[in-house]
Design brief:
The protein is an all-alpha fold and 162 residues long. It has one domain (3-161). 90% of the residues lie in helices and 0% in strands. It has helices spanning 3-65, 72-103, 105-110, 112-134, 140-161.
Length: 162
């Protein structure tokens, strides 16, 4: 056999072997990362639940023990922050649950940032509607403008990741 005919074939064979090796290594590392992240996902979900519980308790206490006319601007800001934290953790947990039911655990781990961002944006929308209503400025086109703003922010983040 000629050395020139053997050399490219051996090189091609070694390239195929190294490519297969790298693919196997990649999938092995990805599987280990997903196993580690599933435990992290459980602790993340428990953290979300605790934030939702504490903010719900704080919101109930604020409603029961404060007078909205006497608390002033700082009290209203704190109340809206409590509502924001509750709604963001609630929407985050809800979106994670929906993704887990429809796509499975692996997809939830890969899309955890997406659920967090969308939960925050939904809570910004809801608190924005509450603020506009408390100022007696809420009309349907203001709500649509707020929704369009939140939608544009989400599209910006989606286009950045794509």
């Amino acid at each position: 056999m000629d050395l020139e005919t053997l050399l490219p074939q051996e090189l091609r064979q070694s390239e195929i072997l190294t490519e297969e090796y790298h693919q196997r290594r990649f999938f092995r590392e990805a599987k280990q990362t997903i196993k580690r992240n599933i435990m992290t996902l459980k602790s993340y979900i428990w953290g979300i639940r605790l934030v939702a519980l504490f903010s719900l308790i704080a919101g109930i206490l604020a409603i029961l023990y404060t007078d909205p006319e006497k608390i002033g601007t700082m009290g209203l800001v704190l109340f809206y922050l409590i509502v924001f934290f509750f709604l963001s953790s609630f929407f985050n947990a809800l979106l994670l649950w929906v993704r887990k039911k429809t796509l499975g655990n692996k997809a939830v781990v890969l899309n955890i940032n997406l659920s967090f961002r969308q939960g925050m944006l939904l809570s910004i929308f809801a608190v924005g509607l509450l603020v506009l209503q408390s100022l007696r400025l809420l009309v349907w086109w203001d709500g649509l403008l707020l929704l369009a703003g939140v939608f544009i922010i989400e599209l910006y983040f989606l286009s950045r990741t794509a």
